From TrEMBL:
Pfam families: FAD-oxidase_C, FAD_binding_4. Keywords: FAD, Flavoprotein, Oxidoreductase. This is FAD linked oxidase. It comes from Thauera phenylacetica B4P. Residues 56-234 form the FAD-binding PCMH-type domain. GO terms for molecular function: FAD binding; oxidoreductase activity.
Length: 503
């Protein structure tokens, strides 16, 4: 644990890892890892140069591919002793640069931690390694009438370790919760090589809620080696309501009215016209192309519960000015409706060389206001934007379309995204709902949090990772970075660090 004066200084500036010696790191790690599990040639490192945020790329010093917890312990102890940064990586599907390698560090791939260790249908739990795919858990639980509820759009590929690190959600998180609400226990290793277990196999309310702290910590506190998740029974019936609107503001207002009516749908999603056009061409989901916006609202439960909820939702939608309302007639049509929403990101990739996805969250009642502002930003920055989002909890996913090969377009996309996130904060929201901060949104952290709050974040990190070696330079901005960004909040009329120039 750091002393108080050390903790106060921690996080002032970026760590200096220029003295890390690649040859010594390779020699030390080669003694604890089996042959073929340590890579350091440029052509072998290239597949790990980025995560789902492909605009940001860097080659790590080395890539380690452990397959046992003992090997993870050994790697972390060596990195701790030698002062080498470590970036843990799962499937690499993240959209915030959280798994971007450190150029002077070890990229610790957990791809070989891919076993479902145990599945208990009676207790409705599964114990899995962090490299297990999200969807694989539901596939394994299906014979017992169970499934794992969080369902991010990348669930066919994303790993459960990454889901825990980012506190991933999905289209059904409104009713069933984020990753943190579907966990019981995690097991991991600290940078010093200590194995820790957080949470338990049952209700755990004693002491601080460290499980919630680790969930969403973006690989900055521990390296996960095992996760215990909750499973839920598959509902008897699910139906999806598709509603169209001739105005995005009315569609946004309808979302707020559904929740205000006391209805908690299994999922409540919204897409604007550019998004539905791209998706319809890609997967033929049956979306009407003339609508300015569509809502997807799912009810699940017993047949009686579903019928009642669908009727209530229909009434609210009609009152809100929906131009057309459809209810899925069978399971195939329900899945087709959702296939369109889940295909939004790849659909964007078909119509644009690159896209930049935001993840701000705002109060539901401000959705229409935000969409109107984004339309104005499209003109300001000269870039198109598709809007898809988890409307039920106000989690926005604007997809800014650009071409990185065109000079200045990436920079304009970044500025466009930054303005969306800062407006999210101004409207009473936050800069991220489920994708994490990573490297992408680190400057916007300076707009959302005060100096005192940033210091507290670093104190928490220091309690788990005193030397600051786990995923450094991500998620929490240094105070000097915030000063340079020029957006650190003013407290009581005083600007922190007045001696540091603002740019």
């Amino acid at each position: 644990m750091m002393l108080e004066n050390e903790a106060l200084a921690f996080g002032e500036t970026e760590g200096d890892f220029s003295a890390v010696d690649k040859a010594r790191v390779i020699e030390a790690l080669g003694k604890v890892l089996p042959p073929g599990t340590l890579m350091y040639d440029a052509e072998d490192l290239r597949p790990y140069e980025c995560d789902g945020l492909a605009a940001y790329r860097a080659l790590p010093l080395v890539v380690a591919l452990p397959s046992t917890e003992e090997q993870v312990v050994a790697v972390l102890r060596i990195c701790h002793q030698m002062g080498v940064p470590v970036v843990a990586r799962g499937a690499g599907t993240g959209l915030s640069g959280g798994a971007l390698p450190h150029t002077r560090g070890v990229l610790l791939s957990l791809a070989r931690f891919n076993r479902i260790v145990a599945l208990d249908p009676l207790a409705r739990t599964a114990v899995v390694q962090p490299g297990v795919r999200n969807l694989a858990i539901s596939e394994a639980a299906a014979p017992y009438g169970l499934y794992y509820a969080p369902d991010p759009s990348s669930q066919i590929a994303c790993s459960i370790g990454g889901n825990v690190s980012e506190n991933a959600g999905g289209v059904h998180c409104l009713k069933y919760g984020l990753t943190v609400h579907n966990l019981l226990r995690v097991r991991g290793v600290t940078i010093e090589g200590e194995v820790v277990e957080i949470g338990s196999g049952a209700l755990d309310s004693a002491g601080y809620d460290l499980l919630a702290l680790v969930t969403g910590s973006e690989g900055m506190l521990v390296v996960l080696t095992e996760v215990t998740v909750k499973l839920v029974p598959k509902p008897q019936l699910a139906q999806c309501v598709l509603a169209t609107f001739d105005d995005v503001v009315r569609a946004g207002d309808a979302v707020a009215k559904i929740i205000a009516a006391g209805i908690i749908p299994a999922g409540l999603e919204m897409m604007d016209q550019p998004a539905t056009a791209a998706v319809e061409e890609f997967v033929r989901a049956g979306y009407p192309l003339d609508a300015k916006a569509i809502l997807l609202c799912e009810a699940d439960g017993t047949p009686e519960e579903v019928a009642e909820e669908v009727a209530r939702v229909r009434a609210v939608l009609q009152e809100s000015g929906a131009t057309e309302i459809r209810v899925s007639r069978d399971e195939a049509e329900r899945l087709r409706f959702w296939a369109g929403r889940k295909a939004a990101f790849p659909a964007a990739g078909r119509i644009s060389p690159d896209y930049y996805c935001m993840d701000g969250t705002i109060p539901r009642k401000r959705i229409g206001e935000m969409l109107t502002a984004i339309q104005a930003m499209e003109s300001k920055y000269g870039l198109r934007c598709m809007n898809v989002f988890h409307a039920g909890d106000g989690n926005l996913h604007p997809l800014i379309l650009f071409d990185a090969n065109q000079p200045g377009e990436l920079e304009r996309a970044e500025e466009f995204g930054a303005e969306i996130l800062e407006l999210s904060v101004a409207l009473g929201g936050t800069i991220t709902g489920e994708h994490g901060v990573g490297l992408e949104k680190i400057n916007q952290m300076c707009a959302q949090f005060t100096t005192a709050e940033v210091r507290q974040f670093f104190r928490v990190k220091a309690a788990f990772d005193p030397p600051g070696l786990l995923n450094p330079g991500k998620a929490i901005p240094t105070l000097n970075r915030c000063a340079e960004y020029g957006r650190m909040k003013v407290s009581k009329g005083h600007v922190p660090y007045p001696d540091i120039p603002r740019f």
